[in-house]
């Protein structure tokens, strides 16, 4: 696998999705519906618990070899349940987009390759989901026509990265554009996000309010390696609008 494919996942707009009740799907035990596919809260909890358990075991083993005792905070992986829902929903939508466009998704990114940048043992399902998603994302990013580069999309990407501390906050649009160069990763990311939004509208997506808004999992190559993040919800002034419920009028999209 070429190294660039690991970090090719660029910034993408989050999907503001309809509530469960609005679409007649209101089971509190379900985290998300994508068409006939459902992801239970128990499934999300299971992936989360597995990630935390495996991460803690790896940290303890490493500390034991060094004769050290890790603190409780050091034993906690930097992953939450929202990250997991983001992956599950994006993977399902991405598979549907690839199938409709007759795109072949290669199996290239492995959990072992992600272990270091994710700081997650490769046998954790969370790492495996990221590998699956990166393969889907890279395929869509390469095959979909890139979107127009707008100030809104550039700044949405920048602000999300800045929240991770990987880039200085408070920059102007001009400064961000200069830092991002051609902005190809923003163009690709916005195109993928728009495709997922369209597929979500077509398939019928409902998200438990506890896990809204759903963000498209994203990464960008930083000075010390990939920076993983997800954009927050972007309203009609951003690259992607929210997905209207059947009872509400559609919101006009301002494509980036």
Outline the structure in words.
It is a single chain. Mean pLDDT is 83; it is low at 232-256. The chain has one domain. With 256 residues, the chain is α+β, with helices and mostly antiparallel strands. It has a 4-stranded mixed β-sheet with strand order 1-4-2-3. A two-stranded antiparallel ribbon has the order 5-6. Helix content is 46%, strand content 10%. The chain starts with a helix and ends in a 26-residue tail after the last strand. A hairpin with a 2-residue loop joins strand 2 and strand 3. The chain is built from 8 helices and 6 strands, in the order αβββαααααααβββ. Keywords: Signal. This is SurA N-terminal domain-containing protein. It comes from Micromonospora echinofusca.
């Amino acid at each position: 696998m070429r190294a660039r494919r690991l970090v090719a996942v660029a910034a993408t707009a989050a999907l503001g999705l309809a509530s469960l009740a609005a679409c007649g799907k209101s089971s509190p035990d379900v985290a998300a519906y994508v068409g006939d596919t459902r992801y239970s809260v128990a499934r999300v909890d299971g992936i989360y618990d597995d990630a935390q358990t495996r991460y803690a075991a790896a940290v303890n083993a490493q500390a034991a070899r060094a004769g050290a005792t890790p603190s409780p905070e050091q034993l906690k992986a930097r992953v939450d349940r929202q990250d997991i829902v983001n992956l599950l929903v994006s993977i399902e939508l991405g598979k549907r987009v690839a199938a409709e466009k007759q795109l072949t998704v290669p199996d290239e990114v492995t959990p072992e390759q992600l272990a270091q940048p994710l700081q997650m043992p490769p046998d954790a399902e969370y790492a495996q989901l990221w590998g699956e998603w990166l393969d889907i994302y890279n395929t869509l990013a390469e095959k979909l026509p890139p979107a127009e580069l707008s100030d809104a999309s550039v700044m949405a990407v920048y602000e999300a990265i800045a929240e991770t501390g990987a880039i200085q906050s408070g920059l102007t649009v001009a400064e961000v554009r200069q830092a991002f160069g051609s902005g190809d990763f923003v163009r690709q990311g916005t195109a993928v996000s728009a495709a997922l939004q369209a597929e979500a509208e077509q398939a019928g997506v409902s998200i438990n309010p506890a896990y809204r808004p759903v963000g498209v999992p994203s990464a960008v190559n930083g000075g010390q390696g990939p920076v993983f993040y997800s954009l927050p919800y972007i309203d009609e002034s951003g690259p992607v609008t929210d997905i209207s419920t059947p009872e509400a009028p559609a919101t006009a999209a301002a494509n980036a």
